[in-house]
Amino acid sequence: MIIGGKDVGEHPLILAPMEEVTNPPFRSFCKRYGADWMYTEFVSADALVRSIDKTVRKLTIAEEERPVTIQIYGRFIESMVEAAKIVEEARPDFIDLNFGCPVKRVAGKGAGAGMLRDIPLMVEMARQIVRAVKIPVTAKTRLGWDADHIVIDEVAERLQDAGIAALAIHGRTRSQMYTGEADWEPIAHVKRNPRVKIPIIGNGDITTPERAKEAFERYGVDGAMIGRAAIGKPWIFRQIKHYLKTGEALPELSVAEQIDVIKEQITLAIDWLDEMRGILHMRRHMACMFKGLPHFRDLRIRMLQAPTADSLWGVFDEIAERYKDYQPNNDRP
User: Which residues of the chain have pLDDT under 50?
Assistant: First the structure.
């Protein structure tokens, strides 16, 4: 797949942008396990223009994680253009425009998926940003604001005409948030549209290797974007790649192997933040691990309440001992 002259590989697996998730430590693990292309957390244009430290720090990228995209969101063209210029100085491979975030504090103010209610503004914003920077600009959006306003065909054509180099589509409307099932048929319809020449990336409910294969073979997308399924399971990229290549499922990591992964992630998160904030940040990842372990509730509660790395390591030792002979399966949703 070629985007703005850059080759990101055939059928790339892409780490979706996720707030408070896709920071440098987590991206490094996803890259290690086979992710082809990274997205940062999404960045507020207004906060970036005001040089808010926490926001500026989100521009941190490493050479080994390339290709990498920094995604920005905002309501106003002027601040989005200025933010794109600031982002360009951080030297990502691509700049992405967030036209899909459904949360109220973003979409409710007209940014993110809120742009789906003002397509002319969305298109003009994209056009001005493309003109303002020298690196390729992509976009990520949803099918429409709600089921009565599925506008993705129009959006895809008009964003392409505005100069967008690739489009990622989440198969839900804004009103759905993350409920129900993603609908991939409208994504496939965009891909089949003879007017649409840019790469189309599919997003939504790619939680297994089988679903990734379906995304490519049934719906014809150029790339598959994986989000929530990677939380607590960054090795999903390796599992998908192996399945796409061989048709065989890799065995799930053992409990001991999962503990090694999460301990290293916690260590990196602590180095990135500090002990308290690093552990708080990693609780979401820990909550998604060890799915299906029998009689795990007591240890799970203690794991998620542990206040220090030392106390966490002690809980992990108990988990390793209790489940040393247990082999997880691949049935995690």
Answer: 332-333
DSSP tag of 111: S
- Give the whole-angstrom CA distance, residue 140 versus residue 134: 19
In 3D space, the residue among 302, 332, 327 whose CA is nearest the CA of residue 317 turns out to be 302
DSSP assignment of 278-324, as one string?
Answer: HHHHHHHHHHTSSTT-TT-HHHHHHHHH--SHHHHHHHHHHHHHHTT
- Give the separation between CA 212 and CA 249, rounded to whole angstroms: 13
Among candidate residues 101, 164, 187, 266, the one labeled active-site is: 101
Two structure tokens written together for 314? 């002690």
At the topology level, CATH places domain 7-246 in TIM Barrel (3.20.20)
308: amino acid identity, one letter: T
pLDDT in tens, 72-103: 999 999 999 999 999 999 999 999 999 999 99
Report the alpha-carbon distance of residue 23 to residue 20 in Å, rounded: 7
Per-residue pLDDT of 212-223, as tens digits, reads: 999 999 999 999
Beta carbons of 150 and 111 less than 8 angstroms apart: no
With beta carbons less than 8 A apart as the criterion, state whether 105 and 75 touch: no
What's the token pair of residue 189? 């319809």
Structural domain spans, the chain: 7-246, 255-322
Phi, psi for 177 (deg, rounded to 5): 55, -115
Task: Based on the residue annotation, tell me whether 101 is a catalytic residue of this protein.
Answer: yes
Token reading at 278: 């690093």
Q: Which residues, at least 6 apart from 321, have a Cβ–Cβ distance to it below 8 Å?
A: none
DSSP state string for 188-219 = HHHHH-TT--S-EEEES---SHHHHHHHHHTS
User: What pLDDT is recorded for position 184?
Assistant: 98
